[in-house]
Amino acid sequence: MTNYIEETRDYLRDKGFENPEVGIILGTGLGQLLEELEVIKEISYNHIPYFPTATVEFHKGKLIYGKLEGKNVIVMQGRFHLYEGYTLQDVTYPVRIMHSLGIKTLLVSNASGAVNLDFNKGEMMLIDDHINLQGGSPLAFKGVEQMGTRFTDMSAPYDTTINNKIEAIAKEHKIKLHKGVYASVLGPQLETRAEYKYLKIIGADAVGMSTVPEVIVANHLDLPVVALSVLTDECDPNNLKPINIEEIISMAAKAEPDMITIFKEVIKSL
């Protein structure tokens, strides 16, 4: 993998991806941030050596380099998921690439369902901790110790200093921001009533199908990472309605301006 990373990194450097400071992963339905970005270069994933290709119809599949709040940033417009048939190493490969290019901070966003019924769709949750229910680890491969500590500490996977900044920014801008535990499941099917009850029992406040692999690898690389969940539906097992993907995308778009405010203010402070 080391040789692949070097080849991908060199390709992107040759294309102008120089000295990035911040990496951003945009989740489902979360693309408005690009309107705030001074785009310098963009490359489709399928043109980048060894990169996976986004297969979900609402994930665009571009790596974008530009300036935001005076900082050089790399934005993933579309991420990868286990449910697309990729391995955990595929899903997290872009994090290793952004780190190799030089980013010092990783900001992650996702769309998720609210398991905590005190949370409402259209609101946001700052991830304070997570539960990995994806059935594997992106660090479980031969030779991982050559790329970082095999037994990566996960006692505080989300950077406390930046999380504190995010909470202060939300308060200053009067943005309703919950804080809680995110459970990451395999998908792509949505959860049953019994599964939502189980998630609540084990301490999850929100559930989704991404983010945790990327966060594990960021910790493996000693890369400070934070993550925001846009809550797009309410997972009440006693009042469960059939899933509506269009509504999920609509809810993500509704909450996204607040997410953009937070990300911009965080980047400005770094």
Q: What is the domain tally? A: 1
CATH-level-4 superfamily name: Nucleoside phosphorylase domain
Strand content: 25-35%
The coarse overall form would be: globular
Low-confidence stretches: none
What is the CA-atom radius of gyration, in angstroms? 17 Å
Please give the largest β-sheet.
5 strands, mixed, barrel
Number of extended strands:
9
Mean pLDDT: 93
Number of helices: 6
The topology string of helices and strands comes to HEEEEHEEHEHEHEH
What is the CATH third-level topology name?
Rossmann fold
The CATH class label is Alpha Beta
Strand order of the largest sheet: 5-8-7-6-9
State the distance separating the first and last CA atoms: 30 Å
Just name the CATH architecture: 3-Layer(aba) Sandwich
